[in-house]
Amino acid sequence: MRARLSFRHGVHPPEHKELTAGVPVRRMPYPEEIVLPLRQHTGKPARPLVEPGDRVERGDKIGEADGFVSVPIHASSAGTVKEIGLWPHPDGSMAEAIRITVDAFSPQIPRPRIIPHWDGLTPDQVVKAVQRAGVVGLGGAAFPTHVKLLPPDDVVVDTLIVNGAECEPYLTTDHRVMTEYPERVQFGIRIMMHTLGVERAIIGVEKNKPDAIETLERTLPDDLDVTVQGLTVKYPQGYEKMLIHALTGRDVPPGKLPMHVGVVVQNVASLACIAEVFETGLPLIERVVTVTGPGLRRPSNLIVPVGAKIRDVLEFCGGLLDEATEIVFGGPMMGGSQPDVDAPIIKSTTGIVVLTKKESRPRRTYPCIKCGHCLDACPVFLNPSLLGILAQAGRFEEMEEADLATCMLCGCCSYVCPSNIPLSQMFALAKAGAQRRKQQAA
Ligand code: SF4
Ligand code: SF4
User: Fold this and answer.
1) Where are the extended beta strands (E) located within 78-220?
2) What does the domain layout of the chain look like in residue ranges?
3) For residue 411, which atom of ligand 1 is closest to its CA?
4) Is 17-21+115-280 a CATH 3.30.450.40 domain?
5) 369 lines ligand 2 (CB under 6 A)
C-alpha cells in the first residue's frame, strides 16, 4: 500500500525545539548518589540481587528480570549499596529502589566482559543478549525490546520501522542521537533486521530535522534495503499506529499490535542502545536526555547515568530561573508534572522540561461546552468529550464500552479543550483503574 507520510486529525503545538536542537550532547558528571527503581519498564519489576553494604562496579547487574516481559537493572555507577526501599518514582508513586552511594574516586571502568558477536548468534541468542542488557524502548514507553524481537510463529513481519519522528515539543534527544551517532543507529538497524529476518527498514523522521535526515541518508548501508522518509510535522506523528499508517498505509486494528500488520517499530535511541550492547558489551546504564525549557538557565542534551536525581541534572544545567513554575517529565503533551526533584531519571526518561507560567497549563477548568474540538483532534477517532463526562461520573465500565482501550493518552484532546478539562490525565487514571480491576479479577 502507498505511504501517506501523515495521518488524520492530530494537533500542531509550538515546537520549541530551537532551545536544544543544535546543542551537542555532553556527558554529565557522576552525582553523589544514584537511585535505581526496580520498576523502570512495562511488565514485571526486577528483583533485587544486592544488599545494603554491597560494593558494585559500573555495569554490574543489581536486579534480575522477573519473567519474560521484564528486564534486569544494572548499576550505572561504581559505589556502595546504601539502602533498598521506597523512593519517589517519576510516575508520582513511591516505588522500591536501590540507592547507591557513588564512589567519587572510581575511574568508573566496568568489569571485563565478553562482547557478543552479533552475526554469529542465532535470533534467540540475540534476543537473550538484548534482554540481559536490560534494553527497553527509549522513546518513552519502556517496553522490553527483546519481546518485540520474538514475534509468534503465526505472525509474518516484513518491515522494520525506525522511529525518528520525535514529535513531542521541546525534546531533541532522538534528533541529537540521529545527527551525532548515525553509524550506531545504522548498526542497530542491521542487528534488528538480522534478528527479525526482515528485508526492509524505513526510518521515519519529521521534516523539521533536515540535518538528521541528511546524516542518516549519508550513512545508509549499501547492502541493505534501508530508506529514510521525511514525515509531515504533526503531533502525535511518533506514535506507533500513526507512524505505521504514514509510512506503509497499513492500519493496526484496535486491540492488535504492529506485528499483526507485519511491522515492528523501534525508536532510534533504542537501536543505538542495541548497537552499543554489541559494540561494548555494556548494558543500558545511561541515556541521552534533553533538559530544557524557558525556566532553565542552560538548556542541554546530556548523557545521564540512569538513576541520577532530577535535582542533580537541573543543577548541572545551571539551575532554574526565578520564573520557573513547573517541571515536566517527558514532553509537555504526554509528560506529567513532577513535584519531587529527588525522583530519578529512569530508562524511559526522554526529557525534563522546565516551564514558566506562560507555558504551564491553566489550573482552572470549566464545564464541557460541547464544542467538538477534542473529536476533531483525536487521532484514533474517539469521543473524548463523552469519555470525559463518563470519567467525571466514575462510570468506568461505560468508558471501556466507549473504547477507552484504544486511547493512546496522546494528550491532543486536553491540548485543544477550551475548558481546560484534563481529559487525557483522567483517561490515564481510568486506564490504570481498569488494569487494577483486571489483575484483581485474574
Ligand atoms: S488522549 Fe486518547 S482520547 Fe484524547 S486525543 Fe489522544 S487518543 Fe484521543
Ligand atoms: S474540547 Fe473540551 S469543551 Fe470541547 S467538546 Fe471536548 S471536552 Fe467539551
Assistant:
1) 79-88, 94-102, 159-164, 200-206
2) 17-21+115-280, 373-441
3) 1
4) no
5) yes
